[in-house]
Amino acid sequence: MSLRFAAPDTPALPLHLVAEEALEGWLTGQAPEVAAWVRAMGFTGALGRVLVVPDAAGGIAMGLGGYGSATSRARGRFHLAGIAAALPAGTYRVAGLPEDQAETEALGWLLSHYAYERYRDQSPAKARLVAPEGVDAARLEIIAAGEALTRDLINTPANDLGPDALEAACAAIADQQGARVTCVRGEDLLAQNFPLIHTVGRASAVAPRLMDMRWGQSGPKLTLVGKGVCFDTGGLNLKPGSSMGLMKKDMGGAATVLGLAHMIMALGLPVQLRVLIPAVENAVAGNAFRPGDILTARNGLTVEVNNTDAEGRLVLADALSYGAEDAPDLMISMATLTGAARVALGPDLAPYYTDDTRFAGALEAAAARVADPVWRLPFHTPYEAMIEPGIADLDNAPSGGFAGSITAALFLRRFAGGLNYSHFDIYGWTPSAAPARPKGGVGMGARALLEALPEVLGL
């Protein structure tokens, strides 16, 4: 698997992107035998269609990729990636790529070469690309590597990626980028006042832990907090088998912030970066926490447990409280937190919450530029009463089923210390293959954040 561009001086075949409405005009500029071949083969420029034009010796003279219409392009993204997957092996130099889409489409080409091959060889795209003129190839390769890291972590099953292996992955990234990592494990979580992380993870055979990675000596303070539930049985509120099948991806928040952290560090953004990952397995044993238990969090708030399957917000609560103590300029949490977010927005949109309209504006403009869609949902303060059970300060799973993603976000905000805080309730999974996104783990929101950070933090 190579997520890199071909060297600029590599001999390359021309690859012409041709939209449906531009096909006839393009054909008039070609040799008669080329135009005849294209017409004979029924190439229309339909989105994703690929045609190879032979040369006189029976080799490849050029490739054609259908760029569809404005309507068909609006229904998807990474169209060049779909073309890359259908091309024969070789190195290509693309022509006809709209300038405003060059970076996104070139990144999609790189990501079309991603495959998770730990347990079995796969068949990613074989065609290579010379980076389009004007594209920052090195930056895109770093972004692709960060996304691949996220996907690999999510795709790895829990027997090979428990809290200990997630800690090892975090340490490996830190070593690569010159960051520092400390980790609090097992009973030391109680000694150092991380009671909710300990409570959620204590029933597992692998000790719960909190990883703390730091990088950078100057610039604004940016803290990323990622939910690292390496497998979620639901605890004593046991999930049915149909709901447990994808729970290896319940550490998708941790995987996504690690991928984003790789991008930030490798690109050398002038920030003081901190990454906090509470890593646990929500398991069932005699010492598992119970429905009805009342827990006291790091910041002193009490929480009534009304569902042990709402564990992600508990481990994040301690991590957010800890992050807030350092008073960062911006704190962001990412988590595969609620099914309610999926019901509302489906698997492709990353819902996020913020009270900062400037942050929201910068993020949404960035998301549109880099084809990493996000959608703002409200920290709707009138719903605060829904997370207040009366017997304790907070309820981890309000009854009634209304506004589940919003109430979870409001719960987390109680631990963010009044800081500039944003929360992403992501899915982290592509349920069916799409261009540049094979079925499986996927990053959501990270590229949009990377694009927005210079404006948000004044870099």
Automatic annotation (TrEMBL):
Annotated EC: 3.4.11.23
Pfam families: Peptidase_M17, Peptidase_M17_N_1
Record GO terms (molecular function): manganese ion binding; metalloaminopeptidase activity
UniProt key word Hydrolase: yes
Keyword Metal-binding in annotation: no
First-level EC class: hydrolase
Gene Ontology terms: cellular component: cytoplasm
This protein's UniProt keywords: Aminopeptidase, Hydrolase, Manganese, Protease
Residue span, Cytosol aminopeptidase domain: 307-314
CDD domains: Peptidase_M17
InterPro entries: Leucine_aapep/pepB (IPR011356), Macro_dom-like (IPR043472), Peptidase_M17_C (IPR000819), Peptidase_M17_N_1 (IPR048816)
Alphabetical GO biological process terms: proteolysis
Domain of life (superkingdom): Bacteria
Family statement: Belongs to the peptidase M17 family.
Cross-referenced PANTHER family: LEUCINE AMINOPEPTIDASE-RELATED, PEPTIDASE B
Listed name of the protein: Peptidase B
Species this protein is from: Roseovarius mucosus
Underlying gene: pepB
